[in-house]
Write a structure and sequence with these properties.
ABC transporter involved in vitamin B12 uptake, BtuC; mainly alpha; single chain; globular
Length: 348
């Protein structure tokens, strides 16, 4: 096996180990372990509605996974996609309520506004990192709290429908909502948008000068600077792009899946995007499979909680194991070293 396939095999091994341990846990806590495992593995694919649920959940994960993977590619451990996803959803919801446009322009304007707001807000930790070397992890996590607080204020005091019996906004204009693609499911045109975005991100990252500079800055910032690259501008650029994608994801999710804005807490998709990016090894195309896998096991866990005696929280254990093994650089490294040695001997 060639070294270039090592990470694919390593990721597959991590997933299999995590699932194997999950099956052991299910066997220990369930009175009918085989039936519970069958539900977990089969139910997400059992009906058109369940398949739709997997794809619906994968759409926001693809957006945030793609955004975070670009940041990780530049060696920037930024987790700000969570706050950007939420706040851009608030912006899109505001325009969906108060604007009156046709069914093409209305979602286009709302999504574009949310995306641009996401880009501008993401630039702030980018500038702090580029100019003053402020730790991007700390600044992005603080921004998550700030954006959530402002967004919740807007929801409660500017958008909230007082006649509703919950903390939700007024209803969106019908023209602002995204079209459903498949009858019997809630799969919407956001799926097409994110797939086009993934193709564009792959082309940008591997076929353009700016993408090359992002990859070089991530590999070795000092060497990139020595080579004449303006790494400060590269850091700000990748933050702008990632913020635009995360903001678009929040806007698309709100207009595609809801008729009102109803997030009274951070939805969690931004932090999940980090797990998707890790599984995808920061490769845009691999984000699709990673997002679908994560959505698949979550829908499986939900079905298992409904129809068996195993709680859905079990899936948190699977995710934790995946993160631990993926982030362990020494996991299977001996095998990689052995392959490198064999290739070197063949080339002698």
């Amino acid at each position: 096996m060639k070294v270039k396939y090592f990470e694919v095999v390593r990721t597959a091994a991590v997933i299999l180990i995590a699932l194997f341990l999950a099956f052991i846990i299910i066997s220990l806590v369930s009175e009918q372990p085989l039936e519970s495992i069958r539900i977990f593995l089969w139910e997400p694919l059992n009906t058109k509605g369940h398949i739709g649920n997997v794809i619906e959940m994968a759409i926001p994960l693809m957006f945030t996974g793609l955004a975070v993977s670009l940041l990780f590619k530049a060696n920037l451990f930024n987790l700000g996609a969570e706050g950007l996803f939420y706040f851009s959803g608030v912006i899109a919801a505001t325009l969906a309520i108060h604007l009156t446009l046709n069914s093409f322009m209305h979602p286009f304007v709302a999504i574009l506004a949310g995306s641009l707001v996401g880009a501008l807000l993401s630039a702030i930790p980018g500038i702090l990192k580029a100019k003053w070397n402020v730790n991007e992890l700390v600044s992005s996590l603080m921004f998550n709290n700030i954006l959530f607080g402002i967004g919740l204020y807007i929801l409660n005091y500017k958008l909230r429908d007082a006649q509703a019996f919950a903390a939700v906004s007024f209803k969106f204009e019908q023209t602002a909502m995204l079209t459903k693609l498949l009858p019997g499911t809630r799969i919407h045109t956001g799926l097409i948008i994110v797939l086009v975005l993934i193709v564009a991100a792959h082309f940008f990252l591997y076929k353009t000068k700016w993408g090359y500079e992002i990859r070089m800055t991530g590999a070795n910032r000092e060497f990139a600077q020595y080579s004449g690259m303006k790494t400060a501008k590269v850091i700000i650029l990748v933050h702008l792009i990632a913020g635009f994608i995360a903001g678009m994801g929040g806007s698309v999710e709100v207009l595609g899946m809801y008729s009102r804005f109803q997030w009274s807490a951070l939805p969690g998709y931004g932090l999940d995007g980090a797990l998707v990016a890790m599984l995808a090894k920061n490769n845009p195309f691999s984000v699709i499979g990673a997002a679908l896998f994560l959505a698949y096991i979550r829908i499986g866990a939900d079905q298992m909680a409904r129809f068996s005696d195993v709680p859905a929280e079990m899936i948190s254990i699977v995710q934790a194991i995946i993160i631990l093994l993926i982030s362990a650089e020494q996991f299977l490294k001996f095998w990689k070293n052995r392959m490198l040695l064999k290739e070197a001997q063949r080339n002698v």
